[in-house]
Every structure is written in structure tokens, then in C-alpha cells.
Amino acid sequence: MLRSMFEKVSCQTLDDTKEFVPQTGLVKSLVAGRTIAAASAVTPQESCEFGSPKYFMLCGLGGILACGTTHTFVVPLDLVKCRIQVDPAKYKNIFHGFKVTLAEEGARGLARGWAPTFYGYSAQGLCKFGLYEVFKVLYAGMLGEEAAYVYRTWLYLGASATAEFFADIALSPMEAAKVKIQTTPGFANTLREAWPRIMREEGMHGFYKSLVPLWLRQIPYTMMKFACFEKTVELLYRYVVPKPRSDCSKPEQLVVTFAAGYIAGVFCAIVSHPADTVVSKLNQVKGVTALEAAKALGWGGLWKGLTPRIVMIGTLTALQWFIYDAFKVATLMPRPPPPEMPESLKKKLQAKGEL
């Protein structure tokens, strides 16, 4: 499946029996209005061709670095957030949550769950960013140049939703172990202890029982994360940045990336928070469904821990986009500019008097 997908999105033959010969002509990139000469697609300043298998592999590696490191960095905040969600009587707010955790477990206790966080979100980042780029190019090719520009927000939403569907399957087992370690006293202190116990007591179901609410949390989150980021970058360059992107230095472009990432992160946290609370409750309590957990929490309970999550997700999202884009800069990957209206569409609109 992935083999045929790469053939479609990269416009290359992967027949192992034949020597690769670059295609001539023009290959349309995802960015409407921009074309790439396939015979000389890799410029001296770029390490790979846009839309090639190497490009997608590097995107996946950038996703591992972006998600694995940032989620591990904010484990203390995530731990307190989860405890507020599942036991608001004991952990009243973010500051009280830190105070209680430090008093009972010391500073070491704030790092509980770091291992499943690192491995789980590294796997998720590989799929989230890598497959997003794959599906974005694939869907753009299916739509055609003009439709890909006109409906680009829907393109971002569809590509990110598809990518996150697979990313959550990779994340779910580690997420289950993380929440058990962080919210169930005495269950386990490490990943090596948590995994065998979950398997012994609940079987494979224990690793995937929260997959559906995880999808409900992560898919809207990721759709907002990518679509809001892409549109915010476009708007920042159009209305805020005082010069065209092509005239901005790489550091200046990364500042725009960070700002757009933080704005997107705030919206992500709000959209996905109720489902996040249900996921935490499901992994803490055995034998309950997502609907039962939601009813038990109540409307107010679903929004417990929102403030620390906004801080956490806003920072996370900004750092992830910054690391991801910085990785592209460091590895000399192609970084297409924000979409521009195709010339063919401009001529059509001008003929109709709409432009």
C-alpha cells in the first residue's frame, strides 16, 4: 500500500528491475501555482526532491524529533493535568497539583511516565507529520491544481485527519501505560512494570480500550493543529510580516513558524480537551465505557485541567512546529512558500470580473 502510494505522490517508478530514470517535464507540487522540474528537481541548495520517498522519510524523522522531545519535556505538567482530571478533589488546580505531588513523591515523582511518553509520542510524530505530508500531496494531486488551492483548508483538514487516524494506533499502547503510571497509585513505576501488568490483567484490550476516545481527542486536535497553522502562516505573511517570505531570513521564517504554532496550539487544546479528560478517566478506571466516563465526569468535569492543558499544548505545538521546520532547514529540505493562486484560476476570475 505504502509502496504504491509513494509511486503516486513522487511521480517516480519504484520498479526494482529497472534503473531509475528521472522523468522530464513538470511535476506539480502541493503548492498551487508552483511547479518543479523533475529532471532537475534537486537544486544544489536542497537535499531531496519535494514529494520524493526521501522527502517523506525525512518528514517522518522530523516528526519524531518534534513530538518525542517536546512531549517528554512537559511530562511534569502533563502528569499534574491528568491528576486534576481524574481526582479534582485532591488536585484542586495546577499549583496545588504540583505542591501535592512534590510533597508526596518528591521531584522525581514529576517525571513519572516519561518513558511511555517519549516512545509513544515519537511513534505518533512519525505518523502524524510523515503521513500528513504524504496525504497532503496525494489529495492535492487528486483534486487538481485549482481545486487544491480553492479548497486548501479542506485539504489540510482531510490530510491531517487521515494521518492522525494511523498515528493514534501507534500511540495508544504507550498512552495507556503512561496514564496508568501517572494516575493509579501503586500500579507501576516504570514502563517495564506497566506493560506486563496491563497485558496480564486486561490483555490487548487494555492497550486499545481508549483508542476511540483517543481518536475523538487527537483527530480534531490534529485537524486544528495543521489547518490552523497553515492558515495562520499564510495570514501572518500577508498581513503582519512587513516583507515577503522570500525576503525573510531563515531565523525570521522560524519565528513566524513558532508564532503560528502557538496560536494553533491554543485552539487545539480547547477543541480536544473534553475527549482528553475522558481518555485519562478511562485509563484510570477499569470496566467503564467512554460514555459512562463522560457521564460520571459531568459537563464541568470534562473541562477540568483546561488551563494547564492550554499552556502545555500551546507551548508544545509551537515548539513542535519550530523543531519540525528547523529540522527541514538543517537538512536542506524543500520548504514551499504559502499557497498562491494558480495563473489559470486568476485568468478565469479576471474573465468573469471577479478579480
From TrEMBL:
Positions of Solcar repeats: 54-138, 152-235, 252-330
Keywords: Membrane, Mitochondrion, Mitochondrion inner membrane, Repeat, Transit peptide, Transmembrane, Transmembrane helix, Transport
Pfam families: Mito_carr
Gene Ontology cellular component annotations, sorted alphabetically: mitochondrial inner membrane
Domain of life: Eukaryota
Principal subcellular localisation of the protein: mitochondrion
Membrane topology summary: Multi-pass membrane protein
Biological process, per Gene Ontology: mitochondrial phosphate ion transmembrane transport
InterPro entries (alphabetical): MCP_dom_sf, MCP_transmembrane, SLC25A3/Pic2/Mir1-like
A molecular function (GO) term: phosphate transmembrane transporter activity
Locations listed in the record: Mitochondrion inner membrane
UniProt similarity note: Belongs to the mitochondrial carrier (TC 2.A.29) family.
Free-text function comment from the UniProt entry: Transport of phosphate groups from the cytosol to the mitochondrial matrix.
Protein name (Swiss-Prot/TrEMBL): Phosphate carrier protein, mitochondrial
Annotated source species: Aquatica leii
